[in-house]
């Protein structure tokens, strides 16, 4: 039995051959990298209160270091750390959390990271 494309209706036809991505040994494919990124547990970046930095400076550093940080969010995070001793700055991948933490520390702020599922 032969079925023409016209008989099947709109959208029927021959499919293109799928492209199979070849990787060299020791190199991860784009799919593997996406899968790994999705399966890594999220981490919290925590800002700790200190008595050395002015509040305005803390807000400026948060806006400089954390992508997409707004003035309102930075002020709220700074206030929470000031009154409660610590505040969650952002929840992200471990690699990003480590980078943000190092940048905050590099600007003189006290910060740490912890898995989102543990800690406070």
What does this structure look like?
The structure is a single chain. This protein has helices spanning 5-8, 30-39, 55-65, 71-84, 94-106; strands at residues 43-48, 86-92, 110-115. It is an alpha+beta fold and 120 residues long. The radius of gyration is 24 Å and the shape is elongated. Helix content is 43%, strand content 16%. Strands 2-1-3 form a 3-stranded antiparallel sheet. Helix 3 (55-65) packs across helix 4.
Break the fold down into its secondary structure elements and pairings.
Elements: H1 5-8, H2 30-39, E1 43-48, H3 55-65, H4 71-84, E2 86-92, H5 94-106, E3 110-115
Antiparallel strand pairs: 1-2, 1-3
Helix pairs in contact: 3-4
Strand order of the largest sheet: 2-1-3
For the largest beta-sheet, the strand count, sense and barrel status come to: 3 strands, antiparallel
First and last CA, distance: 67 Å
Overall pLDDT: 84
Order of helices and strands: HHEHHEHE
Question: What coarse outline follows from CA principal-axis ratios?
Answer: elongated
- What low-confidence regions span 5 or more consecutive residues with pLDDT below 50? none
Number of strands: 3
Count helical runs.
5
* Rg estimate, integer Å: 24 Å
What percentage of amino acids are in beta strands? 15-25%
Structural class by SSE content? alpha+beta
Helix % is: 40-55%
InterPro entries: ClpS, ClpS_core, Ribosomal_bL12_C/ClpS-like
Protein name: Adaptor protein ClpS core domain-containing protein
Pfam family, one: ClpS
In short:
This protein is α+β, with helices and mostly antiparallel strands.
């Amino acid at each position: 039995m032969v079925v023409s494309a016209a008989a099947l209706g709109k959208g029927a036809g021959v499919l293109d051959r799928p492209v199979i991505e070849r990787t060299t040994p020791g190199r991860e494919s784009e799919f593997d990298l996406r899968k790994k990124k999705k399966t890594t547990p999220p981490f919290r970046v925590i800002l700790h209160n200190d008595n050395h930095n002015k509040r305005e400076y803390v807000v400026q550093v948060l806006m400089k270091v954390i992508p997409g940080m707004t003035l309102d969010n930075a002020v709220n995070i700074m206030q929470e750390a000031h009154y409660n001793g610590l505040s969650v700055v952002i929840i992200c991948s471990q690699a990003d959390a480590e980078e943000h933490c190092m940048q905050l520390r590099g600007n003189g702020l006290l910060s740490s990271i912890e898995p989102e599922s543990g800690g406070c």
